[in-house]
Amino acid sequence: MIGAIAGDIIGSVYEFDPIKTKDFPLFSPFCSFTDDTVLTVAIADAILNGRSYFEAVREIGRRYPDAGYGGFFFRWLHSEDSRPYNSWGNGSAMRVSPIGFAFQDEESVLDEAARTAEITHNHPEGVKGAQATALAIFLARSGSTKDEIRRTIQKRFGYDLERTVDEIRPSYSFNESCQRTTPEAIIAFLDSTSFEDAIRNAISLGGDSDTLACITGGIAEAFYSEVPSEIRSKVMECLSPDLWEITEKFLKKYRRRKSSRRL
User: Fold this and answer.
1) Taking a C-beta distance cutoff of 8 angstroms, is the pair 219, 183 a contact?
2) Residues ≥6 apart with Cβ < 8 Å to 51
3) Cα Rg of the chain, angstroms
4) How far is 123 from 9, CA to CA, in rounded Å?
5) What is the pLDDT of residues 95-132, one digit of tens each?
6) What pTM was computed for the model?
7) At a CB cut-off of 8 Å and minimum separation 6, what does 238 contact?
8) Alpha-carbon distances of 25 from 184, 197, 262, rounded to whole Å
9) What residue spans of the chain are helical by DSSP H?
10) In degrees rounded to 5, what are phi and psi of residue 205?
11) How do the domains of the chain map onto residue ranges?
12) What angle do CA 20, 23, 228 make, to 5 degrees?
């Protein structure tokens, strides 16, 4: 999941200042983690400690009230009304990466991804975005090729993954929906040659950059087997001690063995 966090941090400075190029400094002095990271870590904490996704997201989310949550989620987070609000926003996909790393078969991954989404994002598109992201991560870490990942996600979820980053980039703009974020983030991975290249692809689309790169980063980490050490070090520097502690525990428990990879 550190790949997802890295994507969030790298993309944070371009969320409201989008770019349409892959040529940018990987880490700006103004980079920081956002709600994408906070909620990703919350899902990891729930897995590690066997508590509900609802409890972990509410508790850890409230530690960081200024992380940049969307309006509906912010009200849910601080309200006594705990009901989901039928969202199809990309927040369900941005926080789900730990599921793809922690569970050991497709059905468990799909079931758990839905559970993480449904505490807030119980709209079918919100659930679908979380499931597609988690399944792509699971397939990537389990040895599937890019073509196999593409075909499986298209068949199960109906996303158009036949496009390329270069085809999407000219007309793409900021969009907070799962249906206009998750497919594009997956394509940014499919079009990549390395972890870093995947992150650059996602941010260069010029959309909701931290969330695009967060989704892409989780899949790219799973496929390329690791996050480069210099990127991992910057993530550690950027995270608060409590978020890094959870992240490190998750990485140690669910660490992948390095392998030779097929593109």
Assistant:
1) no
2) 45
3) 16
4) 27
5) 999 999 999 999 999 999 999 999 999 999 999 999 99
6) 0.96
7) 9, 31, 32, 33
8) 22, 13, 28
9) 2-11, 35-49, 53-63, 71-78, 91-94, 97-102, 106-118, 124-141, 146-157, 165-168, 182-190, 195-204, 209-224, 229-238, 241-253
10) -70, -25
11) 2-15+31-253
12) 120
How many other CB atoms are found less than 10 A from the CB of residue 243?
Answer: 23
Number of Cβ within 10 Å of residue 99's Cβ equals 32
Residue-wise pLDDT for 30-68, tens only, equals: 999 999 999 999 999 999 999 999 999 999 999 999 999
Q: How many Cα atoms sit within 13 Å of 43 on the Cβ side?
A: 32
pLDDT category at 81 given cuts 50, 70, 90 is confident
Q: Which amino acid is at 125?
A: E
DSSP 256: P
- What are φ and ψ of residue 177, in 5° steps? -85, 150
Looking up tokens 């449904």 gives 118
Looking at the domain 2-15+31-253, which fold is it?
ADP-ribosylglycohydrolase fold (1.10.4080)
Angle at alpha carbon of residue 184, lines to 172 and 216, rounded to 5°: 125
Give 243's contacts (C-beta < 8 A, 6+ positions apart). 33, 37, 38, 41
Burial class (CB in 10 A: 0-12, 13-18, 19+), 155: exposed
CB 94 within 8 A of CB 214: yes
Tokens 């550190």 map to which residue?
Answer: 2
Dihedral of the alpha carbons of 235, 43, 61, 33, in degrees to the nearest 10:
20
Chain length of the chain: 263
Q: How far apart are CA 31 and CA 50, in angstroms?
A: 32
- HSE-CB at 104 with a 13 A cutoff on CA atoms is 1
How far is the C-alpha of 39 from the C-alpha of 110, rounded, in Å? 18
